[in-house]
Amino acid sequence: MDVGYRVKFENKNRESNIKKIFGHGPTISDQIQERTVLNGITGMASPGEILAILGPSGSGKSTLLNALAGRTLANGFTGTVLTNNRKPAKQIMKRTGFVSQDDILYPHLTVRETLVFCSLLRLPKSLSKQEKTLVAESAISELGLTKCENTIIGNGFTRGISGGERKRVSIAHEMLINPSLLILDEPTSGLDATAAYRLVLTLGSLAQKGKTIVTSMHQPSSRVYQMFDSVLVLSEGACLYFGKGSEAMAYFESVGYSPSFPMNPADFLLDLANGAYAINLLFNLCSLISLFSDSVELTSHDQNPSCLGRRNCSVCAILETFTCVAARARR
Ligand SMILES: Nc1ncnc2c1ncn2[C@@H]1O[C@H](COP(=O)(O)OP(=O)(O)OP(=O)(O)O)[C@@H](O)[C@H]1O
């Protein structure tokens, strides 16, 4: 609820640093700048659902996910993260899995060795070695890794499992602790459309087992998009839309934004978040003005006594268009 994040950072400007050396530049306090990374974000994710956080690069997706997971100790966060029984989320942090953008895995271990090793480290001491191995094995089959369980992870120098399988290993690694909330930061980045779809299908099956899935995504395809239960669109740290994924297009159409041809809703939402449609709207407004400007003289309000202000003359038509566009822009 109302999650905000402001950071103070030093403006490391080369020119001002040189000036500082010669004693003519701004003081250090002058160079401290403040920036709002997240501004009043409110949303909700429920068990059995996938909540997707969409937005352009730098819109604050990772920052929001880190705030939800309680992974950042930095000052500057405001707002509250509550569980479904309205308890502060700190109480369930132990049951939260976080899959970061950059997975860190041992390149020389096989998939099975990685997960068994991690289960020995991460699972409670009360479990026997055999029980921990069983948990690792069930994570392997749950994430569809059986085929490659004896292949090494690999890295840039040694060929190993594929990019999609790597992501699955990272998710399986988090599934070991049986999280109730699974947070993923761009799990499909670097994957082709089919591999991304398969991964989101797997996330869907985890959601069906009662997990709450919150994931950020850069550019989901339309068939991936239709698997999201709810969507939160971020634009420069502010929430542009939060609601059902299936209702986003209807909502934006109702406020005057709709694509000129059928397109992937995710692409359309990203264009909106990037401000492309605001520019289009402005462009259309300018075209309208230029279209009407010639005829204003010909049928002005005064010369058209029958006009009752209902677009019967071009002055009223322009005014009405302006009022309508302004109202849409305000909304
Ligand atoms: N501690 C910080 N100091 C300065 N700037 C920050 C800090 N944390 C985040 N930012 C800025 O906030 C913005 C949002 O960052 P964030 O990583 O959340 O974006 P993102 O939407 O996840 O981007 P991407 O899709 O590229 O990963 C960025 O412009 C980043 O530079």
TrEMBL record:
Query: Which UniProt keyword terms apply here?
Result: ATP-binding, Membrane, Nucleotide-binding, Transmembrane, Transmembrane helix, Transport
The transmembrane segments are none
Checking InterPro entries in the record gives:
AAA+_ATPase, ABC_transporter-like_ATP-bd, ABCG_dom, ABCG_transporters, P-loop_NTPase
Principal cellular location given in the protein's record: membrane
Give every ABC transporter domain span.
Answer: 13-261
Give membrane topology per the record. Multi-pass membrane protein
Subcellular locations according to the entry: Membrane
The UniProt entry, under Gene3D superfamilies, shows: P-loop containing nucleotide triphosphate hydrolases
- SUPFAM superfamilies linked to this entry: P-loop containing nucleoside triphosphate hydrolases (SSF52540)
Q: Domain of life of the organism in this record?
A: Eukaryota
Q: Where is the secretion signal located?
A: none
Pfam families per record: ABC2_membrane_7, ABC_tran
Please state what the protein is called: ABC transporter domain-containing protein
